[in-house]
Amino acid sequence: MSMTGPHRDDLLFEVKGVDIRRFGSQGQQRTAALSLKLAEIELVKRAIKDTPVLLLDDVLSELDSSRQQYLLDSIHDIQTLITCTGIDDFIENKFQLNKVFHVADGVVCEG
């Protein structure tokens, strides 16, 4: 087991001096985590001169509509794989879905 490294760091995110981990809404916590992820993508892009693939799981469920739109606008030019239980939020935000796959009863279907 590794005892050092970035996975051992404790980061504190505050909104107006308040620790959002303890007192923030789930939407605020999700926004902070996504902000960190987007910043990480920018750092990787600069370091390797290429854009990494972004993987997101059920990313819109805890965000209000303005934060949903901001996130979708931010990842527009990034190859992104998103898992979710429905695509309604993406359609409402006019996000271009290049490919959609449905999984039901262990079967994956495109479309």
TrEMBL record:
One of its GO terms (molecular function) is single-stranded DNA binding. The keyword Nucleotide-binding applies. The lineage of its organism: unclassified sequences, metagenomes, organismal metagenomes. One of its GO terms (biological process) is DNA synthesis involved in DNA repair. InterPro entries: DNA-binding_RecF, DNA-binding_RecF_CS, P-loop_NTPase, RecF_2. PANTHER family: DNA REPLICATION AND REPAIR PROTEIN RECF (PTHR32182). Keywords: ATP-binding, Cytoplasm, DNA replication, DNA-binding, Nucleotide-binding. This is DNA replication and repair protein RecF. Gene3D superfamilies: P-loop containing nucleotide triphosphate hydrolases, RecF/RecN/SMC, N-terminal domain.
